[in-house]
């Protein structure tokens, strides 16, 4: 089991940064779909999660091939690229995801409660409005470049691994 948390102070600076971060993680997951398929067949699992303060990379499975899968994810992260068509597809999916969260009373109530309790939190309404105003491909490229330049990493490796 390998878990790394790539933390960046950039994410919580604005609602736009949070939306750009969600877009980035979704595009990264989309890009990894085909190359990581063989790892899935070999019973290796990975998950990319857009956490509040950074990207969480979780990888688990048999230890002898796990570093290869982790390296694949890191390679795609470092050489991040996307097409305008993928950008449009992911932003449309995010609009639907945000809207579905907003129409459920229990998730909206949780979001409002956390907004009251946590300092500097952006509401789902802020994120949805930011996304509806529109994002640019240049803004995403600039955000990803800045995100990669301001990272702090925490990691946990557990299981049958040598140092």
Protein described:
This protein is an alpha+beta fold. The protein has one domain: Metalloenzyme, LuxS/M16 peptidase-like (Cytochrome Bc1 Complex, Chain A, domain 1, 2-Layer Sandwich). The chain has helices at 15-32, 37-41, 66-78, 84-102, 105-117, 124-133, 137-149, and strands at 2-7, 45-50, 54-60, 152-157. It has a 4-stranded antiparallel β-sheet, with helices on one face. Helix 1 (15-32) packs across helix 4, helix 1 packs across helix 6 (124-133) and helix 4 (84-102) packs antiparallel against helix 6 (124-133). The longest helix has 19 residues, at 84-102. The radius of gyration is 17 Å and the shape is globular. The mean pLDDT is 92.
